[in-house]
Amino acid sequence: AIGHxxxxxxxxxxxxLEQEVYEDDAFRRALCDAVESLPVGSAWDLRTVVxxxxxxxxxxxxxxxxxxxxGESWAVRPRRxxxxxxxxxPGIKWGVAPGSMTHTTELFGPVLGVMGVRDLxxxxxxxxxxxxxxxxxxxxxxxxxxxHWARRVRAGNLYVNRGTTGAIVxxxxxxxxxxxxxxxxxxxxGPNYVASLMRFREVEASVGRGAGSVGDERVAALLEELAxxxxxxxxxLARLRHAAASYAYAMAEEFxxxxxxxxxxxxxxxxxxxxxxxxxxxxxxxxxxxxLFARVLAARATRCAVTxxxxxxxxxxxxxxxxxxxxxxxxxxxFVEESDxxxxxxxxxxxxxxxRYADPARVAAxxxxxxxxxxLHLATAPVLAxxxxxxxxxxxxxxxxxxxxxxxxxxxxxxxxRAPVA
Length: 422
Description:
This protein is α/β, with parallel strands linked by helices. Helices cover about 30% and strands about 15% of the residues. It is built from 14 helices and 13 strands. The chain has helices spanning about 20, 25-35, 60-65, 100-105, 120-130, 145-150, 205, 215-230, 235-255, 290-300, 315-325, 340-350, 365-375, 385-390; strands spanning about 15-20, 75, 90-95, 110-115, 135-140, 155-160, 265-275, 280, 305-310, 335, 355, 380, 395-405. The strands form 3 sheets. The protein has a 5-stranded parallel beta sheet with strand order 10-9-8-11-12, covered by helices on one side. α12 runs parallel beside α13. The longest helix is centred in the middle third of the chain and has 22 residues, at about 235-255. The chain is elongated and about 75 Å long. The two termini are about 35 Å apart.
């Protein structure tokens, strides 16, 4: 929270305590003592732990350092030191209320807000109410709490029983979710980041890579029905089969499991992928059958909650056919008719987390403006039959770092073999 004067993007600005700990006077005294004992001073002084801010505080940070809101009190009051407007001793605000400025604002400075909650689920809810999702940390020795928290909390980098700063390239690829993310959400320092800076096209050798079983009975049945009805030209149908198999292969090998390429003693570093929550597949009159069906199969492979969105009155017989052939998929896919203006409203109101188009030229200006206003990513790259690339549009990366040792004691995992895997 206080290192680098609280200016790191992943610095903790909000501490949420279970009520028993929140009301523990001994814990409060220990926390205050720890903060007050940190040497504050010039960056040139080797004894300094809390150095100066990069500029005099202003706006929300100045308010956070100087003002209290209803119910708040200073456990440690921050003070401006010496003659420098950039040098502040760290402070702790106690009694932060849900919905307050301190709760919902990222304060990039040496001030920590503290709030109490009944239980872990309420703590997770309070985290989500901030609207941000770069890093989140949990301190708990209960494996069940760790698993529950890691499953529920929405943030790009998760840390258990360690600090929230200091992500290391490859070990903890870095990037956030919600208001802490811009673009496709591919993490810096990870194996996918460069893909967001590239433009891909298929060559014949890559289309069939990983081809094999599609791994889903309903997808297999859909492909057979398309073949029976001759909806696609033979070449397009073969490409769609390759796509379905490649998507299944990519899920099995990369996206559908957790990866730890370091296997450090005492620390798990897991790279994993979560489906985009609410995905809209936008249909355009110029979309061909492959572009429509391939996007649906990609969403199916990644387990996205998908809505197929088509303009009213669009003569697109493949959409009607898709509706009929996926009736047994139940809530896995929905269909709506909506104008570009309607879709723009959906984007502004936060009813979708991503929109997948088949071509950037098919995106209406009104939708682009709406997406820019709220920071929503429009996935507009060409639809590919290569799962390792195409599925990146339907997923979010997440890093989970767990210190499983306790002061060097490895406990029940002491005999576990730990070695880098190829």
